[in-house]
Amino acid sequence: MSHFPPAPVAGAAPLDGAGSAALTYSGTAVDIGHALDDGPYALLQRIAAVLAALSIVVDGFDSQLIGFAIPVLIKEWGITRNAFAPVVAAGLIGMGIGSAFAGLFADRFGRRWAVIGSVLVFGAATCAIGLAPNVATIAALRFVAGLGIGGALPTSTTITAEFTPARHRTFAVTATIVCVPLGGMVAGLFAGQVLPAYGWRGLFFAGGVLPLLLAVVLLATLPESPRFLARRPQRWPELVRLLARMGRAVPPDAAFTDVREQRAEQHIGFTALFRDGRARDTAAIWAAFFMCLLAVYSAFSWLPTMLTNEGLSVSLAGYGLSAYNLGGVIGALVCALAISRYGSRWPLLLCCAGGAVSAWIMLGVGATQHTALLIVGLGLHGLFVNAVQSTMYALCAFVYPTGVRATGTASALAFGRIGAILSAFAGALVITAAGASGYLLMLGAAMALVLLALAVVRRHIPGRTKASRR
Prior knowledge:
470 residues, single chain, mainly alpha, Growth Hormone, Chain: A, 16 helices, 2 strands
C-alpha cells in the first residue's frame, strides 16, 4: 500500500525556456516525482549530492586505513598476517550489519539522520583505535566503525538518487560511490606521509577526526530527502519549505503524491524486493555484490600486505593500493557516462570481463623486477573492478522504487559484505599458501562470476535512445 493519500494529481505547468524553476499547480495536489525528476537541478539539490559524496569520501578513507596499518603493525608487534584476519573480518561484519539496518532505519526514520549517525559512529570508533593496546581491541573497534561505514554507503547513495533529476541520476549516484576509491586514494597518499612520522596511531587519530568534523557540517546543512518527506503527511509543511529553497514554490496547504513510484510500487517492505517480477533481479544483484565486494575488499585489506610479501617497501605497497583506487575513480566515471548513453548491460559486462582479464595478465609480472608495470596493472584492474562496483548502486536505484530503494540497496550491500567478510580470511590464506599468483587468480575468478550474475539481471538501466522511445 502507498503512503500517499488518494488525491488526484494536479497538472503542472512546464518549465519556461529560460530554465525557470517556477511551477504552477491547479488545486493543491503536487506530484513530487514530476517536480524532482523533470525539473531543473537546483543549487540545494547539488549541495545535498556533494554532502552525500563527502560522507563517502571519509567513509572510503576510514574503511581502508586498516589495510595500510597492517604491515606496520605486523612489524611493530611481531605477529603474523593471519592474526589480523579476525580484525579485518570484524570490520567487515560490522559493515554488513550496518548496511542492512541503515537501509531499514533510513526508510523508516529518514535518510538525513541515517547518514549523520553513520558518520559519527565510524569517526568516533576510528579515533579510538589510535588508543588500542592489542589486536582484540582493534578488532572490537573495527566492528563498531564498520557499523557506521556500512551504514553510510546505502543511505548516502539514496540521498543522491532522490535529490537528483532522472536525467542526471546514473552519473550522480556513480560519482557519489566513486568517492569510496577516491577516499582510499587519499588515504594511501596520507598514510605514506603520516605513518613514517606519526605511526599507525596517528593515522587512526587523523582518520577519525575528519568524519567527526564532517558530521557537524552535515547537522547544519544536510536536508532531508523530499521524496521521503512526501510520504509522511505530518512533515508536508517541512517539505513545502524545502521545495521553496529549491526554487519550487507550492501552496502551503499542498498535498503530495508520486505517480511514477506508485505505479512501480505495489508492495513495500523487505518482501517487495522479491515481488512484481523483481525476484530474479534481486538474487542476481546480490550474487554480483557478493563476488564484487570479495574482489574489492581483497584489494582494500590485503593488497599492501601482498606487495610487501613480494618484497616491496611499505611505501611502494601503499602506492600500489593508491593506483588501484585512482584507476577505480576513472573507471567508475567513464562507466557511468557509458551507462547514461548505452544503458547498463553492456558497459557492466565489458568491465567485468576487463577486471578478470587484467588480474590474470598480471600473473606474469614480477613485483620487484617490474614494479612500475605491476602498479600500472593494478591501476587498470582497479579501473574495471570499481567501475562495476560503483555503478551497481545506480542499477539498484533503477530496479527498486522509492519505498524500498534504501532497503533494496542496503540489502544488496549487506549480502555483498558476506563476500567482503570471506575476503578477510581468503586474502590471508591465499597470500600465505600461493603468494601473488594465487591472489591474482582469486581476483580474476571473482570478476568472472560477477559477469555471469549481471548477465542474468533483467531490469538493466536503458540507454538514452531506448529510454527516449518509451
